[in-house]
Amino acid sequence: MRIIDGKSVAQDIKNNLKTAIARAVERCGKPIGLAVILVGDNPASKIYTSNKVRACEEVGISSYMYEFKDGTPEEDILSLISRLNADETINGILVQLPLPKGYDEGKILKAINVHKDVDGFSAFQIGRLNMGDPQLVPCTPLGVLALLDYYNIPIEGKNAVVVGRSNIVGKPVASLLLFRNATVTICHSRTPDLAGHTKRADILVAAVGRAKLITADMVKEGAVVIDVGINRTEAGLAGDVDFESVAPKASYITPVPGGVGPMTIAMLMSNTLKAYELQNGKD
What we know:
CATH class of the largest domain: Alpha Beta
CATH superfamily of the largest domain: NAD(P)-binding Rossmann-like Domain
Largest sheet: 6 strands, parallel
Strand content: 15-25%
Structural class: alpha/beta
Number of strands: 11
Strand order of the largest sheet: 1-11-8-7-5-6
């Protein structure tokens, strides 16, 4: 069994991005800008946004943080997004999720210019991905594929099972695996005999948001196990995989924390650079 060190891989990617960003900025003659919007005072969201701002500083992206109190009129947030859409110094815009109750998440996300949608959540970007012409791919699925590639884990011809069907992780990671010629099965909360599917997986991606759902009896010997879940329990953070029982059976496995999480931020930096280059005539 080998633990996939997402933190180390993410750092390598950011080191390479720092050089690429410096070259892009020198070529285009203007800085790269990322706007981060936080609504409410969710402690986890505050940590995530601060980590994203810190990563921007590390790789050479100018970050702009906009914070709104819970209860701020939705129109104020939409007005800001409209201004950011028109601002040529801003190349990427993200709204930290989840939003507090009462906000129309879909409406707010749809307001973001699709060419500045560095989270890759818009119908335009998801559509490009599903048509086989990806541009700005959702960051977590992109990070999953980057981890597999970094460790030279074969994908073509493998049975891949994705547990979770969200638009943010489950569906796009299934598409990415499919385009790499894996045979992909998507499972979800209404899948009967879940273990019957997961035990066939050469590559198992758990992204359903249920702590320790995947146990040793559900995993094939020698499988590659990618745990996307981050669940807050009384005992602390836990993934969707019961790491202690599953790890001895896996050939590779990601821990929680320190696995997929750092990769999501690294891919956000990569998408921001890509958006900048697209907006400045480099495809």
